[in-house]
Automatic annotation (TrEMBL):
Pfam families to which the protein is assigned, alphabetical: IstB_IS21
A GO term, aspect molecular function: ATP binding
Source organism of the structure: Fimbriiglobus ruber
Top-level taxonomic group: Bacteria
InterPro entries: AAA+_ATPase, IstB_ATP-bd, P-loop_NTPase
Domain AAA+ ATPase: 116-242
Family annotation (SMART domains): AAA (SM00382)
UniProt-listed GO biological process terms: DNA replication
The name this protein goes by in its record: DNA replication protein DnaC
């Protein structure tokens, strides 16, 4: 017989769990292996696989939690709205409830909005919770869809771009605009708070247009009604915001600031 040939025999094993079992045993070189219950071996293998799967799942959860935390840290959501979700929003009038519903749907269907590049305009009375709702959407986008979202006031966006006009700036205007073009969702707040120069109108257009061309959704927030907002931001900005299924929510209810 060739030394490489393996001998095989059937052993009887008396397993305390499974009783008498007939199991295959192999002779490797001179020694017969230990006979162990085949059912116990099978059960242990299944248990090992389950343990492995559990640890893989918990590793995946740790990775996911860390990625979400990083995205939240970079979102620049103002501390006042950090952790304030759509669920915390008190809709005390029918139109507030309708506005909340639109925001909820927008957040829930964000992946679809991202595919189509559908934006949102929240405009109207001050103190009606527009920033709260937009930050609530941004937090859902990050923690439920693992997408990136950035919040900025329009003033901060203007400053960031205008800073690049300085002779010693190491960042180009394009770089500054791409900063706002990169996130999956961009929230631009306080539109119309300050006087809008032609330069500022152009900056806002560049940001909105670059996102529009990349099919990335933008949320614009303003205390102005839609007509003065259109005048302020420019028709071409508002046109792009309305395309690809973009929505407008008019906040025409009374301010609840101070009562909430
Ligand atoms: Zn057994």
């Amino acid at each position: 017989m060739s030394p490489f040939e393996i001998e095989e025999r059937t052993d009887q094993v008396n397993c305390p769990v499974h009783g008498l079992r007939e199991v295959k045993n192999l002779k490797l070189f001179a020694d017969w292996g230990n006979s162990v219950c085949d059912l116990c071996t099978e059960e242990r293998k299944i248990k090992d696989d389950q343990t492995m799967e559990l640890s893989r799942a918990s590793e995946e959860k740790v990775r996911r939690d860390r990625a979400i935390r990083n995205k939240l840290d970079r979102s620049a959501i103002p501390p006042r709205f950090d952790g304030r979700t759509l669920d915390d929003f008190a809709a005390d009038t029918p139109s507030a409830a309708a506005g909340l519903l639109t925001c909820r749907q927008y957040a829930a269907e964000f992946l679809d909005r991202l595919r189509r590049g559908s934006s949102l305009i929240l405009c109207g009375n001050a103190g009606t919770g527009k920033t709260h709702l937009a930050c609530g959407i941004a937090q859902d986008v990050i923690s439920k869809h693992e997408k990136s979202a950035i919040y900025s006031t329009v003033g901060r966006a203007f400053r960031k771009v205008k800073d690049t006009y300085r002779r010693d700036s190491r960042v180009s205007e394009e770089d500054a605009i791409s900063f706002f073009a990169v996130p999956d969702l961009l929230v631009i707040d306080e539109i119309g708070v300050q006087y809008g120069s032609e330069t500022e109108k152009n900056i806002l257009f560049e940001i909105v247009n670059e996102r529009y061309e990349a099919l990335k959704p933008t949320i614009l927030i303003s205390n102005l009604a839609i007509a003065p907002l259109t005048e302020y931001a420019g028709e071409r900005v508002i046109d792009r915001m309305k395309e690809n299924g973009g929505k407008l929510i008019v906040f025409d209810w009374k301010s609840h600031r101070g009562t909430a």
